[in-house]
């Protein structure tokens, strides 16, 4: 997949309110999707040209990613994408399972009163995920996916836990997403978000825990089968 793919367009990110933040979001998505290849070096001017912005916000955004461990500085050259091994990715999945499965189960069990409305408010995100998966808008998909899961987990009331999950997700890699979208497998996975909403509304704790575990493991298996 080429970085020049339309799926990495900054235009997918909406209004340019905070260019540095928007560029950082686009770069994170490109890294997670494998559009920026592990071990490869990219210059700020080249990325700036790609996004249609000046090099300054790109450099600033890349330095944010350096602090997150996603890239490293290569003096007088640019930024090198950090390589993540299959073993490390498997470890991230295990951590997510330990945190997200019981938390989402607890959210489902407690879904009543005001929380019912908060869960229903997640439906537009689930719809957007499905639309992005079907159209191959990968940056939009990844942004909506993160927002959906973070907001759902936030209903559990533990902001520190949500921060940990957000960090774990940023360290993940989902190689071959474009291929998976073309084959329809990404759309199939996106439908599980609708199921999570329905399980929460039904206060089905066991069903939610089972689905979330399947969803996380399924995402990892899509990554592995999506590699070229």
From TrEMBL:
Domain of life: Bacteria
InterPro entries on file: GntR_C, TF_FadR/GntR_C, Tscrpt_reg_HTH_GntR, WH-like_DNA-bd_sf, WH_DNA-bd_sf
SUPFAM superfamilies attached to this UniProt entry: GntR ligand-binding domain-like, Winged helix' DNA-binding domain
TM spans (from-to): none
Keyword presence, Transcription regulation: yes
PROSITE patterns listed in its UniProt record: HTH_GNTR
GO molecular function: DNA binding; DNA-binding transcription factor activity
Keywords, in A-Z order: DNA-binding, Transcription, Transcription regulation
CDD domains xrefs: WHTH_GntR
Protein name, as recorded: Transcriptional regulator, GntR family
Source organism per UniProt: Renibacterium salmoninarum (strain ATCC 33209 / DSM 20767 / JCM 11484 / NBRC 15589 / NCIMB 2235)
